[in-house]
Amino acid sequence: MLNWLFGKSKAVESVSLNRIGIDIHSHLIPGIDDGVETLGESIEMIRKMESLGYSHIITTPHVIWDCYKNTPQIIRQGLAVVQQACRAENIDVTVQAAAEYFIDEHFVEMLSTGQELLTLPGNRLLVELPYSTPLMNTSETLFDIIEKGYQPVLAHPERYVYFHSEPSIFSKLVAQGCELQVNILSLGGYYGPNVGKMANWLLENNLVTFLGTDAHKMAHLNMILKSNKNGWLATYPFQNENLIEKQWQ
């Protein structure tokens, strides 16, 4: 379906993602997770994202308590450094921060005790699941998020291979109130053909709310730059652009 995005062509054009305008999933605060390591790398990637057509970036550091013990304070301090560097470099991109929360015991505790969680606009909470083993209570946990007043956004659902044999689970999650965010690189098979098929299935069944880069390094953005553009992007109702009009949480 999306060979326009990563297909081969004799004349390769730079892709324009200004139709989307806002990226809600990336790892651009240096040194706090498995994303960029230096401020220079962060600035270079933000410039590249600007050239792709993004005007807003909400970067989302991992919060995984076994390895990335990021708190709102740590994330805000790192964001301030990035924002200051962007101003110094005259980069005309709005950069904000939320977080990508791994659903583990620590997350459940933070949710149940009312601790501060960093959200996307609209009080949206970006969450991710384990890659190899499914949670026993995925639906219940997402419902708990809603009960606490948040809108759950499930990051890269196409990459949870244990759901590939029963993709109807995603229809159920969406019906339950969860939004889905697919990675751009999944559509071109970057994570493997099965993940690509799953990403396209989600699109074909109108289950995708957001398209994100999930950019950790420049190589991810360079892969997007190799893509071709056509009119399809303008026809799919991604909601990224609608977030620009919402207040930052």
Automatic annotation (TrEMBL):
Coiled coil: none annotated. Its EC number is 3.1.3.48. Gene3D superfamilies: Metal-dependent hydrolases (3.20.20.140). It catalyses: O-phospho-L-tyrosyl-[protein] + H2O = L-tyrosyl-[protein] + phosphate. Keywords: Hydrolase. The keyword Transferase does not apply. The keyword Zinc does not apply. Transmembrane segments: none annotated. It holds the Pfam family CpsB_CapC. Belongs to the metallo-dependent hydrolases superfamily. CpsB/CapC family. This is protein-tyrosine-phosphatase. It comes from Dyadobacter fermentans.
